[in-house]
Design a protein that fits this description.
This protein is α+β, with helices and mostly antiparallel strands. The protein has helices at residues 2-21, 37-49, 71-80, 89-100, 131-139, 148-152, 177-180, 184-199, 205-221, 231-241, 250-253, 319-324, 404-414, and strands at 22-27, 54-58, 64-68, 85-88, 107-111, 117-120, 144-146, 161-164, 225-229, 307-310, 331-333, 342-343, 352-357, 362-370, 373-378. Strands 6, 7, 8, 9, 10, 11, 12, 13, 14 and 15 form a ten-stranded mixed sheet that branches. Strands 4-1-3-2-5 form a five-stranded antiparallel sheet, sandwiched between helices. A hairpin with a 2-residue loop joins strand 14 (362-370) and strand 15 (373-378).
């Protein structure tokens, strides 16, 4: 009997010692090691919100997260279905020592504070209309919806990170006129936009949208982080470059466009793009030749071959682009949108190409600095809906918990939390 008690005591002591030794939780992020990559970002954000110290292990097992061990953190991982590993101090220190070696293209980046997130979208828009809103909701990362009223009243100052999605900052209602001008939803959205512009004190939607774009520009210059997808990328830059120039045809703003407006575009005002030629026809579903799908005959890519490659950066010297490219694969499936991919010839030389398809001469994922802030542009509408169309069923992310395309969005959500290091290139 005494021997049995001794054995039980030893077993209990052994497991207790394991608990004492287990000081860290690792969220592995390689392809085979994580059941739900997208929700893992939500765990990292949740930990920061709870004032836990978090470290992003760049290029280590797919960009894993190292967190302090606690019962509530383990429970949260179990509830959300996120794979985690328990590490001792010695094991964690060994990983950090390996990462710090000059021979390894890895880096440990401390995440300091959960960024406050704003999503620019009209009230009442459904989550599946916006890939970022969709993935933030799925990952359980909190965000606030803002629109023109909030931006024009300087509420952007309350947020660290701003997302823009399928938006038209030029006042041309998304260039849907050709296909949908008689559709009830198009007529209603046009009317709502015109009424909102008037309430805000503007005669035209194009004037109101320009004012919003200028506020966003100032927010970035002042140190904010902006992430844009689909048509919010090129329409934003076009609006800035066309400041003071009427590029809208009568069906959009009630009067003729300015004669010879192309020659009056000021590319110095845009964030990412240069030398672009605007699409004059109101019936063509494109803003300019920034988007490679404008010339659809030359971009004939079979669905099964439409991929782009993530660039490889030095984690120790260029931690920001490295953070933005963290993934469990370097080859990411392409996906279409109003703005699908960026013409390489139209990208400014000081803008980083993070993901590109060189065969087609196009970039899908780019990043740059403006003033004290940063911006990232990501082409396409929905990483798991190849050719998203109006009225299509929403994407169900429970079917895509390991989506590489959606991971890129969440990289952008977390990187403003990183302890700032000066970029070397």
């Amino acid at each position: 009997m005494n021997n049995l008690k001794s054995i039980i005591f030893l077993i209990i002591s052994f497991f207790f010692s394991l608990q004492v030794m287990a000081s860290f939780i690792l969220l592995p992020m390689e392809a085979e090691g994580q059941k739900n990559h997208l929700k893992a970002y939500g765990i990292a954000y949740w930990a920061l919100n709870k004032d836990y110290k978090a470290t992003w292990l760049l290029n280590y097992r797919g960009g894993s997260f190292l967190l302090p061990d606690s019962p509530e953190l383990r429970k949260e991982c179990q509830i959300r279905g996120v794979t985690f590993e328990i590490l001792s101090d010695a094991t964690a220190n060994g990983i950090l020592e390996e990462i710090s070696s000059p021979s390894q293209n890895m880096e440990a980046v401390v995440l300091e504070k959960a960024p406050k997130i704003a999503v620019y979208t009209p009230k009442g828009k459904q989550p599946w209309d916006d890939a970022v809103t969709l993935v933030l909701t799925y990952a359980e990362i909190p965000f606030t919806i803002i629109y023109d009223e909030e931006i024009l009243s300087d509420q952007l100052l309350l947020y660290d990170w701003l997302h823009l999605h399928h938006e038209d900052f030029t006042g041309q209602y998304g260039k849907f006129f050709g296909a949908y001008r008689t559709a009830p939803w198009y007529i209603e959205q046009k009317k709502e936009a015109e009424n909102l512009a008037k309430r805000l004190g503007y005669n035209k939607v194009s004037e109101a949208k320009l004012a919003v774009a200028l506020k966003i520009r100032d927010y970035v210059i002042g140190g904010g982080f902006m992430f844009a997808m689909c048509s919010a990328t090129d329409s934003f830059d076009i609006a800035l470059a066309a400041e003071g120039v009427d590029i809208c045809e009568p069906m959009f703003d009630g009067d003729d466009s300015e004669p010879n407006y192309q020659s009056k575009i000021d590319y110095n005002n845009s964030f990412a793009f240069k030398d672009f030629i605007l699409e004059r026809s109101p019936t063509i579903y494109e803003f300019s030749d920034i988007d490679t799908t404008k010339d659809r005959e030359s971009r004939i890519i079979p669905f099964e071959k439409d991929y782009f490659t993530l660039m490889d950066f030095s984690a120790k010297w260029d931690p920001i682009p490295t953070m933005l490219c963290q993934n469990h694969t370097q080859l990411v499936k392409g996906f279409m949108g109003q703005t699908t991919a960026f013409n390489e010839d139209r990208i400014k030389s000081n803008v980083l190409r993070l993901g590109e398809n060189k065969i087609n001469g196009e970039a899908r994922y780019i990043h740059g600095t403006k003033g004290k802030g940063m911006f990232t542009f990501y082409g396409g509408h929905d990483p798991e809906d190849y050719q998203h169309r109006v009225g299509d069923a929403p994407t169900v992310l429970d079917l895509h918990p390991n989506s590489p395309g959606y991971r890129l969005i969440l990289n952008n959500v977390l990187f403003p939390a990183a302890r700032k290091k000066k970029q070397k290139t």
